[in-house]
Amino acid sequence: MTCLHESSRDGLQSTTTSTTLISSAVPTSASTAEKLDAPATLPDGCTLGPILGKTSRGIISLSKSSEEAIEEHEEVRVIWVDFPPGSQENPFFFSKRRKLGIMAVALFFANITAFETSSYSIGIPSMKRDLGATDLQAAAGISLYGWGFAIGPLAIAPLTEEFGRYWMYIISILTYTLCHLSHGVGKNIGSVLIGRFLLGITGCVGATVVSGSVSDLYPPHKRGIPMALFTLSVVLGPGMGAAVMCWAEANSRLEWRWIIWIQMIILGVYWPITLLILRETRAPVLLRRKAKNLRDERGMQDGGRYTARSEVDKEPFWTAMRKSLSRPILFVTMEPVVTFFAIWAALVWGVFFIQIAGLPYVFKTIYGFGTTAAGSTYWAIVIGTVIGYFLNYFQDALYKRNVGRIGVEARLYAPCAAGIVFAIGCIIFGLTSVPNVHWIAPCIGIAIILAAAFTIYQTCFIYLSECYGSHASSAVAGMSFLRVLVGSSFAMFTNQLFDTMTPRWGLFMIGCIALLLAPIPFIALFKGPWIRERSPYSKILMAEERKRIEAEGLMEGSDDLESRMEHMEGESVMEDDRLRDEREHPHRLQSNHINDVHRKGH
Fold it and tell me: Does the keyword field hold Membrane (predicted)?
């Protein structure tokens, strides 16, 4: 459940350094000055760029050290293609109606993929009877669905970079719908389990690409509420799934197969709607398409090759795929911030999956509930999630008040409290799961757990995204991989845990483990910058983060903070890419200085 997402920022080099670079790279003769002459007018958003290399695989930079071999190339001047300021081509400036339409369609997919986690679990009794499956085999369907969600996102980043988010949605929703067939018509537990894993692989877009769409459509200072809605959709789904579908399981004419068919019918109606409403929101993809159209229409007539910044030194697709598959694992093993947040999130998600798989056990075994009554207890998950959503507004206010003072660690005030509250909720749920205590008491514990889990879940996404900037997708993917892989595995041994230790002491034990992990956000709050300065990737991005926070701090006194921030970010929708370019490809600074000198000359 996933990702978004992508925001941090590096200081520019001094004018002296830029001048030195230019003098060494660009002759100062009159003939060269003529070469630098820009056409009278360029399309809006386009600016004259430097001379780069054109090869069979695309545009490459020429600023490599003398020790590095530069492949055979043809020198060509580029014209940078960006969005004009305030243009509705820029996803940040899509109309409110279009943004709401895209968000509604995307959030529905995030919700229904989560919905199917628990709708499956409530149908397990009739499925076990029909297919002769064991408890472990049936519970494996919950875990395999989660494992698909863990593995799938590792390949998402290069796919969205190459093909954009729109086609990822369209293809994923279609294949997700069709994969219900393997599950629905299965004659044995093996075909059902294969179907569940395929559903997880194809449905992971609901947890990863949706969060990326939020980052595409909203600048950082406006992402709080949209990201909270995304988290609400994801965490609300499992509560709604069992609570709604328990009525189908209780009806002897429907049961587990019709749970699948009902969901497939809903998706069949939903897919054509996505074709009509969704639009591409990935800015680099839109700019590459715009650059290609300009090349087709205008060629080289304007004195350069129209080029999007993301086209320079663009990795081949399969190279990007290999990195995407390996880098998240590197982050979760080598970056201490990612490692500890991933372990914490894995425990939280483990408890979540214990609830998904174990609530029928608790309320049927201890309280003698029937199918619909046991399914109705899942509403406690919904109530807790809604409470967590509204508590998010307090965290958002704390962030805005303190971000200029302490940076991204301002995201961690609520999680510090949530870690403790989460452990208390587990203990309440466990200690009250006994016959002589009213059934409402464990439901209160469940609601407390989910209110805290909502805050923890959202923080893990946003905090890691803001810590790791241009590497955010890898950091979040690494955290999500461990969180979902480990967390969903808890479902397979839930019944064994309860049989061996009883729900009371099993959940009490997990609550004690949660207490041991509760200091993690406190350590990050007070020592986060110190830890990140000593980590392999994060120390490179610290300067970018300081520059971003400084920019926000300077504007805090403005009467119209939101509009000025939006204007600043709208003019630089590719801010992360540009700042990364400045760090990795200093030659691109030459272009800006050349343009300034040339304009002054005229």
Answer: yes
